[in-house]
Design goal:
Blueprint (H helix, E strand, L loop, with lengths): L2 E5 L5 E6 L6 E8 L14 H17 L1 H8 L4 E4 L4 E8 L3 H13 L7 H19 L2 H13 L12 H5 L6 H11 L5 E7 L3 H9 L34 E6 L6 E8 L8 H11 L5 H9 L5 E8 L4 E9 L10 H16 L3 H18 L3 H15 L12 H6 L4 H11 L5 E7 L5 H11 L24
Parallel strand pairs: 2-6, 7-11
Antiparallel strand pairs: 1-2, 3-5, 3-6, 4-5, 8-10, 8-11, 9-10
Helix pairs in contact: 1-3, 1-4, 9-12, 9-15, 10-11
Amino acid sequence: MAIESFVYNNGLRVIHEKSPSNLPLCTIHIFCTVGSAHETHAKVKGISHYLEHILIQLSNINNHAFEIFDKMGSNINAVTTKRYTCFYITVPEKFSNTCIEIFSNMLNDTKFNNSSTVIRKEKKIIQHENERINRQFSTQAFEFFESTLYKGCCFRDPVDHIDFQDNRPDFTETELYEWYRQYYKPGNIIISIVSRNDIDYWRNIIQNTKFIDKPRLSNPTTTTTTTLLTKPERTFYDFSLDCRVKLNEMMLHTELIVGFRTVDYYSTDQYAFDLLNHILNGMSGRLFRLLRQKHNLVYSCNSVVEHSEFIGYFTVQTECSNEHVFHQNKGILYYIVKMYQDLVENGISQKELTIAKESLKSTLLLDQESINTIAKYNGEQVYISNPNTESVVPFLEQYNTRYKPIQLRQINHVIRNYFRLNRMIITISSSNLFHSSYVESMVKKWFIPNSRKHHHTRRKRPRSRRKQNL
C-alpha cells in the first residue's frame, strides 16, 4: 500500500499508510529527533531517557492522561534509542482525535512548574530500571561490544546506565525544560500513522492542535554545558582487528561476541546480511548445528545484524562456560572463527539461501499482523534514510523488492568483501581473565582464508582459433 505524507509550514511531517487490516484500529507513532547520541557531555548523559519518563508523568498530572487511556483500553508506550525518542499507542479509531490531542499537549506544551517532586520520584524508577538491566549479563556484553565498535563516536555509550546517575548531579527542572525546549519542536517531529482512514482525516485533526499552533516557550534561565546537535556526529573508523576483554567477577559464565564491521544504513548490501542472519540462526542454521548439536559447547548462540547511519555489524553472540572458550586447544572461539573462514572460502549453498528467503518472507508476513510494526517501520525509514516517502519501500513489499532478487553470487561476494581480519571485533565478558593479546594471536593464527578458493576467480577464456586458408 502507498505511503502518503505531508509537511506543515512549521516543519512537522506526517506520514500515513492505509491499514491492511479491517479491524477499526489505528496506531500512532511520534518520533522526536533526540536520543543518547545527542548527549555529548557527561552532565547530560541519560537526559533523553529521563525526559521520556517525565513527559508521560507530567502529562498525566496536567491532563489526566492515564484515566483517559484506561477508558480507551490501551496504554501509552515510549522508547528512547541512540537516535530518537518515540511515543506510541494503538487504540480503537473512535479515540484517534483524543490521542492526538494528548500527544499534542505532551510534546508541545508540558508545564514543568513545580515538577521537582515528580522528577525526584521518577529518578528512583529509572534507577531500578537501570539496575535491573545491569544485572542482565547478555545486555552488558552487548553494550561492551558496541562501545568497542563505536569507540570515539557519539553512539558509543548505551542509552542510559546506572553509572550515569552515579557520576552526575540530579537533573533540575530547568535542565529538563531546556532539553525539551530545544528538541521537542515541530521541525524535529515525525508522526507516523496506520489506520483505515485517509490522510486528509488526520490532516484535519492535527491542524487544530498545538502541533501546529505551538505556544512560544520562554527562554531558560540557565544553559547546559554541551553543544546541542541537530544530528549525531560522524566518526571515521580506523579498521583493524580489535580484541577486548572485560573481567566481571559476578558472572558465572562467559559472553563471547565475534563479529565484523559491515555497512551503514544506506548500503543495499545490508539486505544480503539480513539473509545471512537467517542462514546462521534457527534450529537448522549453521550456528545451532555447529555449536550445540555437533560440539555441545554453548548455552545459547545466535547471530545479530545491525546497521546505523555510520556503520553496521554482523556478529555471533554466545553464552558458554568459561572453560569452553578455549577447549582442548580449540573451543568455541576456534569454531566460530573457522565457520567465518568457511563462509569466506566456500560461501553459502543454494539450499541455504532458499531456506533463508522462505524464513525471512514468513517472518515479514507474520509481522504484517501488527499495524504497530508497520507504523514504526515507516517512521524509521522516513526519519533516518528516506525523507522522500515516494522512495520508501512499503513494509508489505519488502521481500519482493529487497530480498527476492538477491542471488547466491551476490551474498557470497558480500561475505568475502566484509568478513576480513581487519574488520573483525571480538569481545569477551567473563569472570575468567582472558588476555586480549593471546586471543588476538590465536585468531590471527586461525583466520587465514585461502584467497585462491574465492568464487570471484575469473574463468580462463578459450583461445581464439585462427581461420585457416583452404
